[in-house]
Write a structure and sequence with these properties.
Aspartate Aminotransferase, domain 2, Aspartate Aminotransferase, domain 1, 15 helices, 400 residues, 2 domains, seven-stranded mixed sheet, 12 strands, binds pyridoxal-5'-phosphate
Length: 400
């Protein structure tokens, strides 16, 4: 019996990709070996984070980096670092931050559910611009001057959420913010691949960048990366690491933490609940190296094969398959356009029945309203593909 069956759970077929709710991305054997080996010995965690910082710096071009418990945690820690710098009293007070600059300027069109992670630090978001898409003119977006007009004595920094369609350009926002000596925190959690983004975002001048470790990098699900200026990554590390140490004995790694800036030992910080284990740090570093080298590319042909198998199995069903080649190094996906008229059921009903069947199959659900099921091959292998194809065939054959 497997570990999940022993707990009374049936493993699902995940055809949705590196979805957090479904456990993230599959770790490669090399990453799992690193995880297991790391568990067998003990090391001081701040020293291990210092070593990870060097690797992250090498791969991203940033001055320093920190392994966090996810991109969301990286956003809270990054915001906290911008609020406190190396000020021990401010660190101790968070999320209370009255009396010092605590506002982050953000374009209204960048607001999304993950900015709760920034607000959790105590920071207040100040919105600029509008949701001009609602006006329908199609010409206006948030503009750089609007950020500058919002800067004032209470401004601590700028929050920028990067997508392939973000406006205004990150480089413009960085230039303006820096002219006012304000740092820019970038949520780039899902912006890998392309691999070039590992360095391009930092190269744009952004002060802190958050990436997910459990998405395309395929590290442990509960990992992420905060990288950027050492001046800020250091205070972020201090607010996450365990601080029960004697100041006289404490020798934090200088590549990560500038001990000379501290008057004494910080208390446990606002990020103490985001602790990361030695196994997670070592495995994330292994996965990051693999991702940066392009090691996962060898699996592409296999993924195409799995999608072709599904597509072929659905011949004659009340559906049409469209293979979409991934842009910017993303995996190819298969879109199944459900013929809802011929089938007599909607795509959402099919999706629900796939989940409640045996084995439970979870397909991508982002285009159900357009009648499309999306198959992401990241978790597929020959056995799972055969089961998935069988279940799709059953659900997409009109019932008499
Ligand atoms: C996934 C995601 C996050 C959260 O990342 P975790 O690593 O799961 O914490 C934050 N922001 C955006 C835009 C994301 O896509």
């Amino acid at each position: 019996m497997g570990v999940y069956e022993e707990l009374g759970l049936k493993p699902i077929i995940n055809a949705s990709g590196a979805i957090t709710r479904l456990g993230g991305a599959p770790m490669s054997p090399g990453v799992l070996d690193a995880f297991r080996e790391a568990a067998a010995e003990s090391v001081p965690l701040e020293q291990l984070q210092g070593a990870a910082s060097k690797v992250i710096a090498q791969v991203t071009g940033a001055e320093a980096g920190l392994v966090t418990s996810g991109a969301a945690a990286a956003l809270t820690l990054g915001a906290a670092a911008i609020l406190t710098r190396y000020d021990l009293a401010r660190m101790e007070r968070l999320p209370q931050c009255e009396g010092f600059p605590n506002e982050f300027v953000v374009a209204r069109e960048h607001r999304n559910g993950y900015d709760h992670a920034v607000r959790a630090s105590g920071a207040r978001l100040v919105e600029v611009g509008f949701h001009e898409s609602a006006a329908g003119a199609g010409v206006r977006r948030a503009e750089a001057w609007e950020y500058e007009a919002a800067f004032g004595p209470h401004t601590a920094g700028v929050l920028y959420v990067l997508t392939n369609d973000s406006q205004p350009p990150l480089a413009d926002v960085v230039r303006l913010a820096h002219a006012h000596h304000l740092p820019v925190l970038v949520d780039a959690a899902g912006e890998l691949p392309p691999r070039a983004n590992l360095t391009a975002i930092v190269a744009s001048g952004a002060d802190l960048v958050a990436f997910s470790g459990g998405k395309a990098i395929r590290g442990p699900q509960a990992t992420g990366i905060l990288c950027g200026r050492r001046e800020l990554v250091g205070p972020a590390a201090l607010q996450m690491l365990d601080m029960d140490e004697r100041f006289e004995l404490w020798q934090p790694p200088p590549e990560l933490i500038d001990r000379s800036r501290l008057l004494g030992m910080p208390r446990h910080g606002i990020g103490r609940g985001f602790k990361v284990s030695k196994e997670q740090i070592v495995a994330l570093v292994a996965a990051l190296r693999m991702f940066a080298r392009g090691d996962y590319d060898v699996e592409l042909a296999g993924y195409r094969q799995q999608l072709a198998t599904v597509s072929k199995a659905l011949a004659g069903c009340a559906a049409r398959c469209e293979l979409k080649e991934g842009q910017s190094e993303c995996l190819p996906i298969l879109e199944i356009v459900v013929d809802q008229g011929a089938l007599g059921r909607t795509a959402i009903e099919v999706c629900r029945d796939l989940r409640s069947g045996t084995p439970p199959c979870y397909v991508g659900h982002s285009a159900l309203r357009e009648g499309r099921l999306i198959i992401n091959p990241l978790h597929l292998n020959d056995d799972r593909t055969a089961e998935l194809a069988r279940r799709l065939r059953e659900e997409l054959t009109p019932r008499k």
